[in-house]
Write a structure and sequence with these properties.
14 helices, alpha/beta, Glutaredoxin, 36% helix, elongated, 23% strand, five-stranded mixed beta sheet, 16 strands, Immunoglobulin-like
Length: 360
């Protein structure tokens, strides 16, 4: 089972989350050879994949018995860890199902849940891509199929990113399965679309929609073509429109407060801005950020240029999608007529070398 990485948040949650075992709950059991009567329960929501914040509770078992109800009603991967042992039980909380856990961390049973009967065997039943693909194809109405497909899609997306960012390493990775996975997703039936894992289905349905839009938009994003206009709010809440800078050279910097390479490059960007600010404007477009994190990053890094927040999930345009941005940072140089001159991805010297040549 792939475990998420928000360990610091999970540990912090323990401070205010201790409580005795409940009498009835969707997750219960009697553990043996646990090594401790204090049980750490950590929940990893499956939506969105690899981005959800883990939540932890502490239970006090009575002779190994416990019961637990997750705070969130969404499907969640759950680990039960006897405190201080480093050994754990793994299961899936499925809304509408109950699961009973028995045995030791090294040899335990999950009963009462059809999903968990397969979940516990995933390392043997679903170890390879071929095994997962065959199961999904044969069981289009199974929530397990959606869960497996989500894992495959996430891994495929990670490998696609590595192929773009590290071409030499990417050449050693397994082949891209995007087309086949998209076809498998279309086969999933109504019981899956409307069942306990419906939020996960909607997440990937939207991801496929965005992918199709991105592919279409990519046709309009190329050096020599006009830069699409947009309007987003700046740090003071005022509307900023790109076309108001017509007549000047402009750099669009797609970044995020979460992006290490983006932040590492800011000092060099500021030196470049100081050198050419009489002829150049920079517009920082923060993507996949909250308003609070974005504003804090702008303040902490003392960014002197125009900064706007990409409006993900709102009525405002998704400018990252409009410009078919897939890697961060992405920098686009626009000439005074509004034409895209240069597009670079990553924090690369080629971007600064191009500006030096342009202005000297």
């Amino acid at each position: 089972m792939k475990r998420h990485t928000y360990i610091g948040l999970a540990i912090a949650a323990l401070c205010g989350a201790c409580r005795p075992a409940q009498e009835t709950a969707p997750i219960s059991g009697r553990l043996t050879d646990a090594g401790n009567d204090t049980l750490i329960v950590t929940c990893y929501p499956v939506v969105p994949p690899d981005e959800s914040v883990a939540h932890s509770d502490t239970l006090v078992m009575q002779s190994g018995a416990f019961s637990y109800t997750p705070a969130d009603s969404l499907p969640q991967e759950v680990t039960l860890t006897p405190k201080g042992t480093g050994r754990y039980y793994a299961l899936m909380f499925v809304p509408g199902e109950t699961v009973r856990v028995s045995g030791s961390p090294d040899n335990y049973r999950l009963e009462g849940s059809a999903f968990n009967a397969l979940y516990q065997q995933q390392d043997s039943l679903f170890r390879t891509y071929s095994q997962c693909r065959q199961y999904i194809g044969a069981h289009p109405d199974s929530d397990v199929s959606l869960y497996l497909l989500s894992r495959l899609l996430q891994k495929n997306a990670e490998q696609a990113y590595l192929r773009r960012a590290l071409p030499a390493y990417g050449a050693t990775l397994p082949p891209d399965h995007s087309t086949e996975l998209a076809a498998l997703f279309k086969t999933l039936g109504k019981p899956v679309q409307n069942g306990a894992f419906a939020p996960l289905y909607r997440y990937w349905d939207e991801a496929f929609r965005r992918s199709r839009t991105l592919q279409e938009n990519r046709k309009s994003i190329a050096e020599g073509l006009p830069a699409p206009d947009f309007t987003l709010n700046d740090t003071k809440g005022n509307a900023f429109t790109l076309s108001t800078l017509r007549g000047k050279y402009v750099v669009l910097d797609f970044w995020g407060s979460w992006c290490g390479p983006c932040l590492d490059g800011m000092p060099r960007m500021k030196k470049c801005y100081d050198r050419y600010r009489d002829r150049l404007e920079i517009v920082g477009i923060a993507c996949h950020d909250t308003k609070e994190r974005w504003q804090q990053a702008v303040a902490d890094n003392h960014l002197p240029w125009t900064n706007v927040l990409n409006a993900n999930g709102s009525d405002a345009p998704d400018v990252g999608l409009l410009y078919a941005v897939e890697s961060y940072p992405t920098k686009i140089i626009i000439d005074p007529t509004g034409k895209m001159l240069k597009i670079t991805t990553g924090e690369r010297s080629a971007f600064y070398e191009y500006l030096d040549k342009l202005f000297n």
